[in-house]
Design brief:
Layout: H1 4-17, E1 18-23, E2 26-33, H2 36-46, E3 51-52, E4 65-70, H3 72-81, H4 87-109, E5 122-125, E6 128-131, H5 132-152
Antiparallel strand pairs: 1-2, 2-4, 3-4, 5-6
Length: 153
Amino acid sequence: MITSVQIAWLAGILEGEGSFKLNDNSANIQLNMTDEDTVKKVARLFNRQYSENRSPERVGHKRLYYVNIMGTPAIEWMMTIYSLMSYRRQEKIREIITSWKEINTVKRDVFKCGHPKIASNFRYNGKYKICLICATARSSRWYLRSKAADSNV
C-alpha cells in the first residue's frame, strides 16, 4: 500500500527531475538521476526495474540511473500526482492525458485497416477480433485466384 507521504515525495522528485512525454502514442514518465537510491525507490513505487545508463562514462561524470513507466500505468500516476504538481507540469499532464484519450478512443473504435469496429463488422479468429470487411475481401481474392489457377490447368 502506497501512502500519501510517498505520493507527495514522488511528486516532488518528478517535479524537479522527472519528464512527462507522449512517445509513439504512449504516455511516459521518466526519471534520470545520478542518485541510485532515489531511482531505486521510485522504481519500487512504480513497480518497475531501474536501469543504469551504459554509455561510455566521461571523465568527472557520475553514473546515470533511470526508470520509466509507460502506457496506462503512467496515466494513472499522472492523475494521482496531478494536484501536487506545479502549474506548468499540470498543463503538460493535461495535454498528455487529452492526447492519450483521443488516440486510445480511436484505437478502440477502428481496426488497424481503418474500418469501424462495430458488432456487424467483426468476427473472432481464434482469440482476436478481425475486420469482417477485410476478411471477406481476402476470401474473395483467394477464391478468384484459385478459380483462375484451375482454369489455367
